[in-house]
Amino acid sequence: GPSADAYRRQNEITVIGDNVPPPFTSFESTGFPPEVLRVVRGAGFKAPTPIQAQSWPIALRSHDIVAVAKTGSGKTLGYLLPGFMHIKRTGKNPKMGPTVLVLSPTRELATQIQDEAEKFGQSSKISCTCLYGGAQKGPQIRDLEQGVHIVVATPGRLNDIMEMGKISLNQVSYLVLDEADRMLDMGFEPQIRKILKEIPTRRQTLMYTATWPKGVRNIASEFLNKPVQVNIGRTDQ
Ligand code: ADP
Ligand code: MG
């Protein structure tokens, strides 16, 4: 409608896809549970960022998404909050393996995502752990054995733990490739491909990237199912 178009124009949002739902311009319109909205307000957030406003309604309809938006635009909650809703809706036992998997290029980014998941998910009893290199595997494996809803991982360490037979990805039904361009630049494509082979194809896949080069486009067309693309600001294509 006209108000969706005006909001998109003001916020430099372009969408590519059929029947893209209008953006959520306020937190009230999201339908996120009160305990989550309380934490959002407590953090001092006044309104969704443009990437959140446009990607939340798409993600909540269980569509695949490609989001092209620069650093600092609020992408983490863009995928985490619909991920919480997905976890509640599917209601799987975390002892059987994680429902949500987030792949991230570095230890620093992965731990930031875990912090955000814990801060915003604790009130909804969402559990999360983080797998990254340069640290002992034992404690990471013990956390997995406790059972968690969300695993945030760098591709290298996740591959190592898969090869040890210490994680099962067959319950994953919400997959996030965060900073996909950076993961490819860092040479993680072979590990990403091995991980994707272990995840059921009946899933929702969300890909976030700051740039949209050929390598990222290829991964998107191979592993996402009719994604809606959301671009924020001017992108390089
Ligand atoms: P990106 O992944 O796009 O680089 P982040 O998800 O790390 O961005 O978010 C950047 C910062 O903005 C974080 O400190 C985050 O807590 C904050 N933030 C997220 N959503 C909002 C919002 N709706 N309003 C204000 N700040 C927000
Ligand atoms: Mg990010």
TrEMBL record:
Residues 56-230 form the Helicase ATP-binding domain. Keywords: ATP-binding, Helicase, Hydrolase, Nucleotide-binding, RNA-binding. Its EC number is 3.6.4.13. The keyword 4Fe-4S does not apply. A motif (Q motif) lies at residues 25-53. GO terms for molecular function: ATP binding; hydrolase activity; RNA binding; RNA helicase activity. The keyword Nucleotide-binding applies. Residues 25-53 form the DEAD-box RNA helicase Q domain. Belongs to the DEAD box helicase family. This is RNA helicase. It comes from Aquilegia coerulea. The lineage of its organism: Eukaryota, Viridiplantae, Streptophyta, Embryophyta, Tracheophyta. The chain holds residues 182 to 418 of 447 of the full protein.
